[in-house]
Amino acid sequence: MTEAIRYRVRGMDCASCAARIERAVLSAGVADAMVSTASQILSLPVPANDPRIAAVEKAVNEAGHHLDRLDVVAGDDRIPSPASHTTPAYRRALWIVILLNLGYGLIEMIGGFIVGSQALKADALDFIGDGLITFLGVLAIGWSLLWRARSALVQGLFLAALGLGVTANTLWRVFSQQPIEAGLMGALAFVALAINISAALVLVPHRAGDSNVKAVWLFSRNDAIGNAAVVGAAGLVAWTGSAWPDLLVAFAIAGLFLHSAWIIIRDARGDIATAR
């Protein structure tokens, strides 16, 4: 049986990232690769001297991600030597991003309750999810696959609970619609956009190469789409006087969030089974 070649993937924080990496690997001629959003590991079922490995690394890099080769020692996946993303400067940058995401996620969640906006609450989940994923990435540097997977499973279950809570609350609001302060809702969404841009600017100097800079902006762009949707919903609420635009955006964002949480849980369970 061929021993899998494993990599830690930098810049993978969602299901769409994993799908993009899978397409890149397939384009390099390797099928049946396993990409785990939970542990952020790419496993290639190829021998160590396979010439396609270089093609895979190039394709993934061009897709906006960076790979760090992992050694396998006594069943334990570890980075063989200090990688650039473990430098003190990069760790500080990651902690800034964690504080920005978690801090504003809590602020936006509270703001959602104050203004009566479900879309703000759903957007806050995205901040909290990004912050927790980055937090796990910082803590798990050097951890074994089993412990990374266990941590990711707990994280995925927590995120799923948050998503279900917002979805249930949104359903309740469908039958008991309440007035929304559209002006404050839009202002909070604009601040959310500024926070996303700030997080990207903090990380850009620490990305290795143009493709990784591209990855940072791809993530920021995806997050900004959610912020823009909330801003648009605020405008429609102010224009129509109806809560429906807010509710529809909330359902869309919460649905995407729950899908990501399910991917994390699925991958974490698969990683636990593999590690054992």
UniProtKB/TrEMBL annotation:
The main location class comes to membrane
Question: Which residue intervals define the domain HMA in the entry?
Answer: 7-65
Show the InterPro entries listed in the entry. Answer: Cation_efflux_TM (IPR058533), Cation_efflux_TMD_sf (IPR027469), CDF/SLC30A (IPR050681), HMA_dom (IPR006121), HMA_dom_sf (IPR036163)
Could you list this entry's UniProt keywords, alphabetically sorted: Ion transport, Membrane, Transmembrane, Transmembrane helix, Transport, Zinc, Zinc transport
Task: Please list every transmembrane segment annotated in the UniProt record, as residue ranges.
Answer: 93-115, 127-146, 153-172, 184-204, 224-241, 247-265
Q: Where is the signal peptide?
A: none
Cation efflux protein transmembrane domain: from which residue to which, for each copy? Answer: 152-269
The answer to keyword Ion transport applying to this record is yes
Membrane-related topology note: Multi-pass membrane protein
Localized where? Membrane
| Full protein name | Cation transporter
Which species? Albidovulum sediminicola
